[in-house]
Structure prediction request, 92 residues.
Amino acid sequence: MIKSNWAYPTTVWFGSGRIVDLPKACKTLGIKKPLFVTDSDLVKTEMVASAIQSNNKNFIPTKVYSEVKGNPVSRYVTKGVEVFKSGTHDVG
Prediction:
C-alpha cells in the first residue's frame, strides 16, 4: 500500500485509507470549521460518516454539503458557495 504526501503547487495527501488523516490535515492547514463537499450518493457511505465523526471528535465541527452531482454544473457550485458563506466556514 502506497501512502505519500507531495506539494506541487498544493499539498496532496494520497493513499488508501487516508481519510482517517482528515483531522490532521485540517489542523495542519488551520481549518477550524470545514465544509465537507460530496455528492448525494457518497454522503450515504460509512467513509463519509466516519470522516465527519472523526473531525467532530477532534473538535473540528464539520458540516456537509451534498447537493452535488458528478461533473457538477454551475448551479451546484453556486449553491455550494452560498452554503459555504452562510456557514462561516473557513479554508485555512
Q: What stands out?
A: The longest strand covers residues 3-7.
